[in-house]
Amino acid sequence: MLLGTKQIEEIVDFSVTEKCRPGIAPCILRISNRPPSYPFCATMADISFSGELDEWIRAHGFPVDQAKLDDGGWALSDTRTRDLLEKVYRNGAPLEDFVMGQVHVGIETGCSELFVIDAQARKILIKKDPRCKKHLRRLVSGGDIDRYHVDTWERSIVFIPLGWTNTHPEAVTHPWQWFKKRHPSLARHLKRTAAHGGILSNPGNLWWERACDQDFWREKNPKILFRHQFKKPVFAFDEGHAIADPTVYAIASSSLYLLGVLNSRLILFVFEKFRHLRSADPQVFSGEDLKNLPIYTIDFDNPDDKTRHDRMVTLVTEMLELHKHLSHAKTDQEKRLITQEIESTDRQIDSLVYGLYGLTVEEIDVVEESVSK
Question: How much is the pTM?
Answer without folding.
Answer: 0.81
